[in-house]
Amino acid sequence: MSSLLLAAVLAASAQALPPLPGLPLDSYEASVRAPIERALEAAEAQPRDAERSGQLGMVLYANEQYEFAIPCFERAQVLAPAEARWPYFLGRTQSNVSSADRGMAALRRTLRLKPDYLPAQVLLAKALVEDGQTVEGRQLYEAILRAHPETAEAHYGLGRLDAAAGQADAAIEHLKKACALWPSFGAAHFALARAYRDRGLGDEAQAELQLYEKDKLGWPAVPDPFMSALTALKGGAAARLDKGIQLAEAGQLQAAAEEHEAALQADPKLLPAHVNLIRIYGSLHQPARAEEHYRAGVALDPNLAELHYNHGVVLMDEGRNAEAAEAFRRAVELKPAYADAQNNYAYLLMTAGQLDEAALHYRAAIAAKPDLRAARFNLGRILVNQGQLAEAIEQLAQTVEPDDEEAPRCTYALGAAYARAGNRSEARKLMTEARDKARARGQADLVASIDKDLQRLAQETGAR
Is 0.70 topped by the overall pTM? Predict the structure, then answer.
């Protein structure tokens, strides 16, 4: 026996065996309770069997019973100290319940047992950086890339570290590689846009921001055989639905669709699955599949506003604006306080030239969600068009914060409203501020537009 394994066995013999958890079995739905009960009975029948304890932990983790899974993995780790799966699952689970230090310790144990296990390396490097241990985190990312140069997440991690250290050129190189390796890596596109902006490369920054907007939640998938075996244990319609939602939020849309479809196989009347699949298939550019789930959802409940709203989003993305407007109209009819539906319906009315009706729906959106910036911005534009400048200024003034990518455009619109109202000094001040913000963000087209208006203001002032 190697010295490493001997040390692990000796440590295990001196370590107390954690008890199996007491589980609230009666609180689980039947499809979830059954596999958990079977795993629990097996673990209790052979209490010294690491595999049985570990399998119970895996079933519990798969069904998001993380706190109950922890003692199972701890027990399996004690019983089988040379098996890398148990500290790996333990580290992931502890991270899920905000035990960062313990999670990192468990991942370190995993890598002592299986030094080349890439998913554990990536997780530990990320955790180290987030914990402020940036030197060790950088070293681990660099080691990952020496062995696995195709790892997009390691390039992303190094790019962020370089950017934080003020090394913009190095950051750009790593982030470009991350985006090339995983084109839908939303966070990497956003970080690259910031790095380009810091180097004064406005056009490149704007192009990366557009890619970020397309795939905001996209994240690279590292092949993980341990987790594949665990997630295969997931059972129950609600559990599959939850998993699908998590995957969708992570930008893994195809996998999210598959989980939602599995949930519907377990429970064909699971209406939230149909609602979500409309949007998921729309994002996957599969409008026919989205339409199928819209029809199925309407058959279950024709009066659910979210069904019609999601259908409207897909139709609008397809350029079918008249049909989209009808879907949004139905959504706001069913749920008048549905701010996003009111906003989208108002937008389509506005672009169709129905300004008075659009203004009514923008006001309804704002009443339901006062911080809905897009609604205030577009209502302000309509009011300027209608000559209601005092209220237009009031609405637009509430859009200039936060100071993000939209702030230059909003500040510019407010300045233009002041110009229309005859307050040229305030207009000039706001437009200059908007230009500075746009220039800092590399928004060259907007800078050019603002410059033209500032020149016009200067000419008008000189002519007076």
Answer: no
